[in-house]
């Protein structure tokens, strides 16, 4: 799936790619922390606070979705090439609780020149909280220093 060019760009520009993804404004605002970044893969964590809960006292679905979407974005942009979400489908399997660490992991399933597909899992210390399947459109532009 990962071409030599994609992998080379990931390795050559790793620090710049990672910094762009770490500095993502919405993820930073929510307190998400990117913990792993590989070619087509990413992992992040979040410890939900009181303002992230719904009226039932569990983690709001929008927060879980946001964490899944963040690792989806990180994994799909890990080659330094601009990738934008086209579609996703999320399934909520269990409730998250305030104060427990949520971990999201994204893995590239397949990609070609224009599209790529990802599987994302969100877990807590005990169980799977949600799963997401998602697809991106891969633009021709890079967001790293000039790539030839």
Give structural notes.
There is one protein chain. The chain has 148 residues and is α+β, with helices and mostly antiparallel strands. The chain has one domain: Hotdog Thioesterase (Thiol Ester Dehydrase, Chain A, Roll), CATH 3.10.129. The chain contains 4 helices and 6 strands, in the order H-H-H-E-E-H-E-E-E-E. The chain has a 6-stranded antiparallel β-sheet with strand order 1-2-4-5-6-3. A hairpin with a 2-residue loop joins strand 1 and strand 2. The chain starts with a helix and ends in a 6-residue tail after the last strand. The mean pLDDT is 95.
Secondary structure blueprint with pairings:
Elements: H1 4-12, H2 14-22, H3 25-30, E1 33-38, E2 41-46, H4 61-76, E3 81-92, E4 102-111, E5 115-123, E6 128-142
Antiparallel strand pairs: 1-2, 2-4, 3-6, 4-5, 5-6
Q: How would you characterize the largest beta sheet?
A: 6 strands, antiparallel
**Tally the helices: what do you get?**
4
Radius of gyration: 15 Å
Helix/strand-derived class? Answer: alpha+beta
Look up the CATH topology: Thiol Ester Dehydrase, Chain A
CATH superfamily: Hotdog Thioesterase
Q: What percent of the residues sit in helical stretches (DSSP H or I)?
A: 25-40%
Do you know the CATH architecture? Roll
Strand neighbour order, sheet with most strands = 1-2-4-5-6-3
Number of domains: 1
Helices and strands, in order, run as HHHEEHEEEE
GO molecular function: acyl-CoA hydrolase activity
Pfam families: 4HBT
Protein name: Thioesterase superfamily protein
Domain Thioesterase: 56-126
């Amino acid at each position: 799936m990962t071409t030599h060019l994609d992998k080379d760009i990931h390795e050559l520009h790793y620090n710049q790619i990672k910094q762009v993804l770490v500095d993502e404004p919405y993820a930073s605002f929510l307190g998400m922390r990117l913990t792993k970044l590989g070619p087509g893969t990413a992992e992040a964590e979040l410890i939900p606070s009181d303002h992230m809960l719904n009226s039932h006292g569990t983690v709001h679905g929008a927060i879980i979705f946001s964490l899944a979407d963040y690792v989806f974005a990180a994994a799909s942009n890990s080659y330094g090439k601009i990738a934008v979400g086209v579609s996703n489908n999320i399934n909520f399997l269990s409730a998250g609780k305030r104060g427990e660490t949520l971990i999201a992991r994204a893995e590239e399933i397949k990609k070609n020149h224009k599209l790529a597909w990802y599987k994302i899992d969100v877990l807590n210390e005990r169980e799977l909280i949600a799963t997401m399947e998602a697809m991106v459109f891969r633009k021709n532009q890079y967001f790293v220093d000039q790539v030839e």
